[in-house]
TrEMBL record:
It holds the Pfam family HTH_3. The keyword 4Fe-4S does not apply. CDD domains: HTH_XRE (cd00093). Keywords: DNA-binding. This is Helix-turn-helix transcriptional regulator.
Length: 69
């Protein structure tokens, strides 16, 4: 099972997005996306929900609790 940092990066790359593109879409800084992907930060619940909604996956999938999208 992938961890949440790898899932976020994989979803972003599948859609051809740069970190700055994703950051702009959900209203955070690109450095914050980078720190999440580098496992240096954990987003709050609101940010996980924004990311899950943007990628059309469940928050549980995104945080690594399930393999079901």
């Amino acid at each position: 099972m992938m961890n949440n940092h790898n899932r976020l990066r994989a979803l972003r790359l599948e859609r051809g997005l740069r970190q700055v593109d994703l950051a702009n879409k959900i209203g955070v800084s690109n450095s914050f996306i980078s720190t999440i992907e580098c496992k240096k930060a954990e987003p709050n619940l609101e940010t996980w929900e924004k990311l899950a909604n943007f990628f059309h996956v469940s928050p549980q999938y995104l945080v690594g609790w399930t393999d079901d999208k």
